[in-house]
Structure formats: C-alpha cells, structure tokens
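#data-curation
PF: Archiving a pair of folding outputs for the training set. Convention for this channel: one message per protein, sequence first, structure tokens after, nothing in between. First:
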Amino acid sequence: MSPNYLNICFFIFLVMSSLSFAQEDERGAIIETVEGFFTAIRTADKRLLESILVPNSLNISTSEVDGGTTQLTTLTHENMVSVLTRPGRLAIERAWDETILIQGSIAIFWAPYDFHVDGEFSHCGVDSFQLIKKGDKWLITNASWTREIETCQKSPLGPLD
C-alpha cells in the first residue's frame, strides 16, 4: 500500500472517531437535560424546569379512555410548569432504554417511563421529548407522552427506594 493511501485511511479514521466522540458528548448532554426535567418534577423546582423548557412550548399527553378512544391533553408551557412543580406531593418519573436521535442542533429523546406519586405507582408510558441546542445547552421544545395504567411492563429499574 502506498503511504498516501495509508494517510487517507488514517485521516478518515480520525474524522469518524471525533464525530463519534462528539455524538456521545451530545447524547450525554441530552440525557442530562432530561434528567434535569425529572429532578425538577421530583423536587418541585419551578426555576429548574423553566430553565430547560423553551418558553411557549406545547406539551401533549395521550391516554386511552373507555372503548379504546384516545384522549389528548394539551398543556401550555405555563400549565406544564405549574402542574409538574405543584407542592404537596412527591412525584418521581423514571425512564430507561432511551433512543436518542441527533441531527445538528435538534434531537429527539424517546423512552419508556414510569411515574409514581407519594411512593405509589401512578402510570407508565413512553416519553417523547424534542430538543434544540441553544448555545451549549439542550432545551426541551416539546414534550409528548402516553399515560397508561393497565399495559405497563415492570420497570428494569426495580422498585422505588
């Protein structure tokens, strides 16, 4: 093999490696944003939640009602912050097996989750967060989730501590 060919192969390897490491860094930052969302819910921290949600975001949940009809619930940014940070309850949301798609400054986080209130199971479902990168920070622009009660699989995270 010619030295030129080896240099080209080495260059391609370096570029691909650096892209892979950059993608992993972004993936970690996205998970950090979502974990911040869950922390804000658990601690009823309005400031934290507002710091990771884009103002005027639209947030939608779906749940099945009698007869298999799907009910949509839409929350404005203000409603979302108010509902998720209301005092007087301990709400814990946990997600696992996340799928993260990233293209430039947009991303999607998709994962099954469970939700507990005051130590009792409330519901499960799938979270779908759409994010944008603003500066060096990932922000949630939209949150959509299913609310399920009867079709929940056991969480691989085990019981709440």
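PF: Second:
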Amino acid sequence: MGMPGSGKSTLGKRLATKLELPFIDLDEYIETKEKKTIEIIFEQEGEAGFRNMESRYLKEVIETQKVFLLSLGGGTPCFNDNLSLVQQNGFSIYLQLSPEALFSRIKNATQVRPLFKGLTDEELLNKLKEMLLKREPYYNQARLCLPGLSVKPEEVAQQLLTAL
C-alpha cells in the first residue's frame, strides 16, 4: 500500500516475479471487470461509488485467489474497513515517500489520476500533503514499512520471508 506514485505496481510486479507469485493490481483488476478505466468510473459513479466497487472487488480477489501479491490503490486501505480485510488475509507492506517525491513522480506521469485532474503544481503538492496526512494512519498499520525511493525487490523479498 502507499500513495499514488509510490511505485506499488512497479515494485509489486518485480517482487512477485522474485517470489514466483501471481501479481494483481487492484485498479487494473477493476478496469478489466468493469470494462472501463478508473477515470471513467470516477466520472460516472463518483468517488463513493468507486470506493464501494473497489471494496467489492478487493473481497472478490481475496476470496477467489490462493497465494498472490496484490497492489492496492492508494485510497483502498482507508475506506470501508478494507485495511482490516487485508490485515486478516495477508501481509501488508507500506511504501513510504515524501509528498515532494510523490509530486515529482505524479507530475511527470503520463496518466492523470482522477483525484489530481486539473490541479496546478502548487495545488497538487498541497493535495498530496493533505492526502498523506489523512492516509498515513492507515498506511502505518502495515506489517512492514519501507522507504519507497531506495527499496529493492530482493531486499523486500528477504524481509518478507524473514517476517513470515
């Protein structure tokens, strides 16, 4: 888990390969199931509608998959008791990045995320700071907290295997 731009999907794919586990990105899973992008879902359903859908698909993944590595959307742990569901059924990892590092990654990303659409640079940085302040109490409940800028899949794999 972690904020948008923290590298969850990138690290997740590499870590899953290292651990020889299937990798599931929850946002991609939702898009495949709904046959719509997250952006369109946000436009049609609003954030509340998306969060309910996200919770439903999180439960579906947990109930239908065996052993896997899952990348959550940045807000997933913060809504609808999703964090408890994750904690009861898996091992959670938080990739920590500062708002400034997140800003740099998101500003240069080709895909505009729905919650950041139309923001100026200053507004984006302030939004990231505000979101991180609200979300970090959830993220900090992860069983393993790692610095997102310097983390390597090999190190995470070793820490994960040691912790388990």
